[in-house]
Structures are given as structure tokens and as C-alpha cells.
Amino acid sequence: MDGKTNIPLGIAFGIVAGALWGTVFVAPQLARDFTGLQLAAGRYLVYGAISALLLMPRWPSLRGWLEPRHWRALIGLSLLANIIYYVALATAVQWGGVAMASLVIGFLPVAVTVVGSRAVGAVPLRRLLPSLGFSAIAIVCIGWQAFTGSAGFEWRRVAGFAFAVTALVSWTIYALRNARWLHALPHVSAHDWNLLTGLVTGALSLLLVPAALYFDNATHSCGAWLRFAAISAGMAIFASILGNGFWNRMSRLLPLTLVGQMILFETLFALLYGFIWEARLPVATEWIAMACVGLSVLSCLHAHRR
Hints:
Blueprint: H1 7-21, H2 23-30, H3 36-55, H4 59-62, H5 68-96, H6 98-105, H7 108-116, H8 129-148, H9 155-184, H10 190-205, H11 208-214, H12 222-253, H13 256-262, H14 264-278, H15 284-303
Helix pairs in contact: 1-12, 1-14, 2-5, 2-12, 2-14, 3-5, 3-10, 3-11, 3-12, 5-6, 5-9, 5-10, 6-8, 6-9, 6-14, 7-9, 7-13, 8-15, 10-12, 13-15
């Protein structure tokens, strides 16, 4: 397993992961008659089932090195990156809108980069200030329309913001811990680590099913359930299996401070998919935001040059 830094390939993997992950911002709008808890349970049940099937032929080689500490780590990572994160994100999208959710989640690059700058051998934080500045401008522009268009504070909007902050904190911790585990296990492929995470996530999602059904008082038609199943399967395959796989490969190829910048692509693609969903072109502030995303990544690349 090649654990050496490869910035161009790592960035390419980060872009693909962002394109796949951006779809999860639109999914809650496609299934607004279902709760965030139900969307998380459906997505991760499928993720767990697919992971279990793909792991079956690989299990003999995996069980030789798996120890209780690895399972504990996988449980923690699964809760942070999947269960807690997506329940919070889906609720934030439905209660506060895609723009607000994108705004808050857009702070992930700043959070991960700042914390990652404390790692041994990381680029000093002062060299990352231009990149963080562009990130901040992009994030403000992304959420500008949502906040200026609001008619005032509503409890659902405030609660949606709180859920988005919860998702932000959860994923920041995950990104750092997951990257460290991947670097600590060079003999384990990123694909296998993703499937193991999916297996544990699927098991944990079984605990969500009773609560997801209990807290839903709506009556859904057969067609609605079929649409829900299709959306859950789509998120599991494209975002969880493929998206996480590309992200894990990227995490091995890039330093932690640059890993944080790659999360901006998720925000960018979430906005693009939102424009398609709303059948409109970006306004001026949104164009500025997308330009700043590119400048943020380029300036971060410049900071990582030897």
C-alpha cells in the first residue's frame, strides 16, 4: 500500500468524493415527507447490507488483524461520520434549507484545517491564512441569500441551524480521527476500511429503525415508500460506498491541512445540484463563492509546495 503524498491524485479523488457527497443535500428535499431519522436509517441499512456482501470474500484476510480496539474505533467513526452527521444534516436541510446547511457545513474546511495544523509536520497555520480567508468569503456568500431572504427568525430555522452545527462538529472530529487511523493502518486498503465502517454503520442503523417509525405519524403510500427506498439505495451506493471510498483514498494521499480544503467541493457540488433542482442560475454572490472555493484550494496548494 502506497502511503506517500500525491497531491494531484489526492485532489482528483477529493473532487469526485465531493461530487458524490453533494447529492445527500438534495435527497432530503426529494423525500420531504420522511424525517431525517428515517432517511439515515434507510440509507445506512442499505450501506451496511452492501458492505456485508462485499466483505464476505475478503473476510478471511481481514479477521487476521482486526482487534477489539479496531472495532471500537469503527463504532466511533460510524457514529460520527454517518449516524449523527446525517440525521443532523438531513434535519437541517429540511428545517433550514439547503443554503443554510451548506453555509454551516462549509465551515468544515476551516475547522479541519485549523485543527490539522497542529499535527506534526503540518504546514504552519500562518501560511494557510490566505486559503482560510477565501474559504470564509465563500462560506459567507453561500449563505447570504438564505439569511437575507429570511422574513425573520423561526423556531424551525433556528433548530435547523443547531442541527447543522451538530453535523459540523461531528464530521470535523471524524475527518481527523479517520485520517489518523488510515495512516496508522497502512496494510489495510481504503476500500476495506470503508466497507468495515459500512458494516458497523449498518448494525448501528438497526437501532434507529424503531425510533424512526415511532416518531413518524404520517401515512405514506406504496409509491412514497418505493421512492424512499430508491433514494436510500442511491445515497448508500453513490455517497456511502463510492464517495467514502474516494475520500479514504484521498485521506492517504494528502496532508491533514489539505484534506480540510477538499471538503469545500462537497459544498460546491451541493450548490450546483441545488441550482439544477431549483432550475435557476447562480446569483452574483454565488458566483463569487464558487470563485473563492477555487482560489482557496489553489492558495492551499501553494502553501504546501516544498
